[in-house]
Amino acid sequence: MSTAGGGTPEHLDVVVVGAGLSGVGTACHLQTEHPQRSYAVLEARDDLGGTWNLFRYPGVRSDSDMHTLGFRFRPWPDSVALADGPSILQYVRDTAREYGVDRHIRYGRRVTAAAWSSTEQRWTLSVSTPDGEEQLTCSFLLWCSGYYRYDQGYTPDLPGLERFGGTVVHPQHWDPGLDYAGKRVVVIGSGATAVTLVPAMSQGEGRAAHVTQLQRTPSYVLAIGRTDPVAETLSRWLPARVADPIVRAKNIAQLIALYQVSQRFPGFMRGVLRKQVAAQLPEGYDVDTHFNPPYDPWDQRMCMVPNGDLFKAIKRGDADIVTDHIETFTETGIRLRSGQELEADIVVTATGLNLQMFGGANLTVDDEPVTLPETMAYKGMMLSGVPNLVFMIGYTNASWTLKVDLVAEYFCRLLRWMDQHGKAVAVPERDPAVEERPLLDFDAGYVQRSIHELPRGGDRKPWTLAMNYAIDAVTLRRGSIEEGMRFEPARSTVGV
């Protein structure tokens, strides 16, 4: 147990949970804007980087442009738009080192429970470590571990899987020693991971003999340049401090415009996307079967492919797409409902992720368990009735980090306001007149499987989760701190 004098647990002003993009970025804001505060970043794994350290499958890369996925306070230093995983991991490492955050990260620390005491006005954290359990206390708790379950990916029921004589691997648990050179590979899935794996495994040294993407339902796929031509041009003529904000603003505007046009004119956007895909595939290719989803653009996340690499792999004949349902696995592959059989040596189940809020930790407030579906999310970042707790959920229709940066700025702004007004506790108070809505209005399978386990959203501000950076930038940087919030002064000498 971590203690400080007389067996008392160590107390920190702020504890940040998670050392991925969200945690490192948030800690940088805290370090810069509130350098007098004590804080620690608790990371369950033995290294920083979060998603970009965990996922090691072939071709792993961002599915958002790096000029918006990178931090506003430390712009992405390259013209590459969709960067590979190792480059992003290095960017997170460099950022943590440059801002001194790396000295505050404590590895091998998994928070298993967090208990708020209104009497003491602090959180007590139960933390699992390699040496046993320890406890810490803090005035503010920032949960930056995202909403994916990192120890377990999602795999649906696959009939007859036990009969298959080949290798089955989930991308979340990729074996770096897996040799797929010259092998027949089937990738099950249609999301960002699948469209990354297919071209990556079908080219270069050690490439597979053939890769088949087996999907039940198509996704929208948009080819974009691997590099940003505007970023390349501006970097030659302007200093970075001038060029970077211009590129970032341009890309944010493009993301917002693409989403808004898709939502307001889905038929038009469906036609544009179909035409773009058809132009990059062999003549006569069955676009309407393999690239024509039954839902409208951006009802689920759109897949971005750099320089159309997926289409090039299909055009070369190194890969193909099959849209069908699995009837059963066989000893040598997969039999489909249509009767077609796919021979395979390796099957990759790129079938999605599981959601898990707060890393599965138990939350209590004054000994009462916090039941997430009974809470309402305040500005998409705090929970009704739960004091001094901020969590990070990024955008589903844009770069995750855009929202994280805004929430971190808001948190630092909240701390300043509380200091100025002599407050120690901030509690969002739910308005009974606000009607409940799903927190995430998104049709993706990983969301729909778990939406009943998440906090609720509301039908009006500040209880809505906006998926619009322009709106959030005004609300979180300029909006009222007091709206929907109850504040309490300090009851003891323990500050925030």
Automatic annotation (TrEMBL):
Molecular function GO terms recorded: oxidoreductase activity
Keywords, sorted A to Z: FAD, Flavoprotein, Monooxygenase, Oxidoreductase
EC nos: 1.14.13.-
UniProt superkingdom: Bacteria
InterPro entries: FAD-binding_MO (IPR051820), FAD/NAD-bd_sf (IPR036188), Flavin_mOase-like (IPR020946)
Family recorded in the similarity comment: Belongs to the FAD-binding monooxygenase family.
Protein's name according to its UniProt entry: NAD(P)/FAD-dependent oxidoreductase
